[in-house]
Each structure stands twice: as structure tokens, then as C-alpha cells.
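Late entry, NDP complex.
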Amino acid sequence: SRYFVVTDHPKGVPDEALFELRTDSLPELASGQLKLKNLWLSVDPYMRNRMDGVKTYIDPFELNAPMEGAAIGEVVESSDERFKAGDKVRHMAGWRDHAVVDANHVEPLPSYDVPLQAYLGVLGMPGMTAWTGLNTIAGLTGEDTVLVSAASGAVGSLAVQLAVQKGCTVVGTAGSKEKCQWLESLGVHAVNHHQSAEDIAADIKRAAPQGIDVYFENVGGPMLDAALASMNDFGRIAVCGMISRYNDGEQPGPANIAMMLTKRLRVQGFIVLEHWEGYSDFIKEVGPLVQKGAIEYQESVFEGLEATPKAFLSLFESGAHNGKRLVKLAP
Ligand code: NDP
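Prediction complete; structure with ligand written out below:
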């Protein structure tokens, strides 16, 4: 099997040379294990935090050990009665082409008529994150005016569409003209975030003069300042991510932080894995919508295992790549 390791803790945006492809033979199958051939790999922003060598809500990647991440694999050999060769499963032994895993650590795929890789994106962890942030964390109602940052991305694009379908006025920020046009086509008031916090806030105000009740935070930095300036009193902020900080932990905090007090905001961070018991409710609601085309989603597909670091690094290039970043492995 071929797998990626990370060889050092990156400073700033990781250099592609920090990732090395290694080869090893797979262990013999023990009872209760599966041999998998990966078909699709997911790369996600949280993986950057795992490269810092520091334990947060999740263990750091061990240097020079096989990396991990969500993947869709096909069972090629099974010593567990619940799975047979040919089954497609979701699991965490990504960043590699083949793996031997414990059958207790894989999930069978739901059976909607959607492309397999949708279970890594709109119907996978990112989609579940959008749904959880809006409903469980922010307590969204149809009366709310909602702001979503990184709104055209894997998480953001489902968040904006669910909010539009609830009847909310929705403002979304993105990093290119093309992304903004796509958002507008979904019924979202789009704002390009490549401008000062004051100018982002002015654009948000033009789009939603009534102010923002719920902010779905994906970005941090000047974007958060613009959001704080746009919030209504007693607004709620679901803190999902702060991607602008992941390569730059030295950033100053938001200048408008005192507005959390003056506007009496409720700000709550969340980690989707701690809400995974809600996945069956999520998939029952959103699976049929995706199947019938009532939810749109975009993908940027990188071809071949070798492209995995590039796919990962593309997450940090604002404006350049659309939607969910995926790696497609040779069939
Ligand atoms: P996206 O598909 O949104 O891809 C990342 C996007 O972030 C880029 O395309 C870019 O969009 C934007 N971006 C990158 N760097 C910057 C920057 N410096 N400043 C502003 N924008 C930037 O990724 P995901 O949907 O997978 O993740 C979105 C957020 O959700 C991330 O912060 C992630 O960490 C978080 N997350 C949190 C989870 C949780 O459990 N709390 C679970 C899953 C994700 P653009 O071109 O529009 O600038």
C-alpha cells in the first residue's frame, strides 16, 4: 500500500515537500478486519491543525506515520460477517490507496441515488457540520437573517441553501466573482471578502439593512470583524471554523471583540464529531433533497493519490477552487 506521511510540523502554509509518499506491505487480515481499496479521499481544513504536533479536541498527526482522513473504500477482503467484498464503506484510513481496518471503525454508506463521493461532502462530515451549526448550535428560525462566510465551500454552500429553504434572508461571503455569482444563483446575497472589514460590513449592510441575527463563522480575521459589526443585539454566532488563522496563529484578535458584550451576543463553538448521533436525522432530511437535485453542490476533483497534498493545500488558496476538495483514485 502507498500512504502519505507528514515529515515535520509546518510553519505557515505547509510546503508540499513536507508530505512524502511511502510504500509498505499490508498486514494479514485478522478476524473482524477488512481490506479496503480506496476510491475517494477527502481533504479537510481541520487536518492543518493536526500537523502542529499539539493535542486539541483531536490527536495530532504523528510525524512519519500514515496520515488519516475520511475516505470511501471498496471492501476487497472481509473477515467480518457484516461486510463482503464489493461493499462500499466510509472510514478514516485516507491519504493512502489501500488499508486494513477494524470493521467496527467503518460505516456502511446510506443508499441514496447520489455519486459515492457525495458521502464525503454534502452528505458527509461537511454537510452534517452545516446542518448542526444552523440547527443545534444557532437554533435557526425562518425569521432570522443569516450570514455565512466561506459560503460557497463544502460546509458553507449547504448552510446557505438550508437557510434559504427555511425562508431566511441569507448573505454569503466568498473569495471570487465566480463564487459570488454561483451564490446569487442559489438565492444568496453574495459579498466578496477580498476587501477591508469596513467594506465587507458595508456590503453586508446593503444586502441586509435589517442586520444579521445568525452568523455561521468559517473564516475569522477581518471577516469576523465585519460580522461583529453587522450583528443585531442578541444575535447568535455558531463558530464552526477560522480558516484564515490555521496557517497564521499570530494574527491579532478581532478589533470589534467588545461588540460581543455591547450587542449581548451568544457565541458558541462546536465540533461536529461530538454531534454525530444526529447524523441519521441529518441524512433523512438532506439525503432526499440532494437526490432530487433540490440542493446543489460543487466539487474540485484532483486525480491520483500523488495529488493529495495539492488537493489539501488548495483549501487555503482563497478564490481558486470550488466546493468540496476530493481526490479520485484509479478504479
Ligand atoms: P471549504 O470548502 O470552505 O474550503 C475552504 C475555503 O475557505 C476556501 O475555498 C476559501 O474560500 C476559504 N479560505 C481559505 N483561506 C482563507 C483565508 N485566509 N481567508 C478567507 N477565506 C479563506 O472548506 P470546508 O467547507 O471543508 O470548511 C469550512 C470551514 O468549516 C473551515 O473553517 C473548517 O475548519 C470548518 N469546519 C469545522 C468543522 C467543525 O466540526 N467545527 C467541521 C468541518 C469544517 P473563498 O475562495 O471563498 O475565499
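The domain at 2-121+297-328 is CATH 3.90.180.10 (Quinone Oxidoreductase; Chain A, domain 1). Will revisit in the morning.
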